[in-house]
Amino acid sequence: MTRPSTALLATALSATLALLAVPTTASAAGDKEKCYGIAKAGQNDCADSAGVHSCAGQAKKDKDPNEWKYVAKGTCEKEGGKTTPPSKK
Length: 89
Hints:
By secondary structure, the protein is α+β, with helices and mostly antiparallel strands. The protein has one domain (25-89). It has helices at residues 4-21, 25-31, and strands spanning 32-36, 68-72. The chain is elongated. The model has no long low-confidence stretch (mean pLDDT 82). This is DUF2282 domain-containing protein. It holds the Pfam family DUF2282.
């Protein structure tokens, strides 16, 4: 049986580690860039550039040029994407 103090310590340690694993907004924004055309269906990070939807996870098909995901800076084109949205016609 686990002693209450051990369980409390384990819970506190787990919570602390979980917080450390989440990047801060400032850090994430500085190290990431939007990459268009690489998101898989249902795995986009936010609204598409064409205005079809306004939420994450709503991409209907893989590699739609209007859908984007955040990637590490400098890796977008290596993954087959573009850092700018497609031009509007």
